[in-house]
Design goal:
alpha+beta; 36% strand; 137 residues; seven-stranded antiparallel sheet
């Protein structure tokens, strides 16, 4: 499956998120929904959110020129290869998930919920972080 197909089918296609992108851990936008634009500065800050938790806790993060306040950051389940960061802006929010090779970025708007967006991101993120997939890429 292509990176764009993951965005179109597994993220935005669920109806549980508004916009989505997949970034490379080393930089660059691999795939995105048409409405989202993530600047190089935002890409760098998103990548840093996974290595400098104190900075993202203090300042939040930006996606598509919208600032989100930090809510939480943790590994997902027992998988140290999947780190998930949640942010909030009034009734809307964003979820970031770092896998072995990529970073998933989604935004959601009310009435979409953090729980629904988080479930979509962690489901795809778990799949992308799996050792079985790494061997097939």
């Amino acid at each position: 499956m292509s990176w764009q197909a993951y965005v179109d089918s597994n993220l935005v296609g669920t109806g549980r998120v508004d916009q989505a992108a997949i970034l490379g851990k080393a930089g660059g936008v691999w795939a995105k929904s048409p409405e989202i634009t993530i600047s190089p500065e935002e890409q760098k800050a998103i990548t840093t959110a996974f290595t400098n938790k104190a900075a993202v806790q203090a300042s939040g993060f930006r996606v598509a020129n919208q600032k989100y306040f930090f809510l939480s950051s943790d590994t997902y389940g027992d998988d140290p290869n999947l780190i998930v960061v949640h942010g909030k802006k009034q009734g809307d929010g964003a979820v970031l998930a770092q896998t072995r090779q990529a970073i998933l970025v989604v935004t959601y708007k009310f009435p979409q919920t953090a729980q629904d967006a988080g479930m979509v991101v962690t489901t795809l993120g778990s799949y992308l972080a799996s050792p079985e997939l790494l061997g097939s890429i």
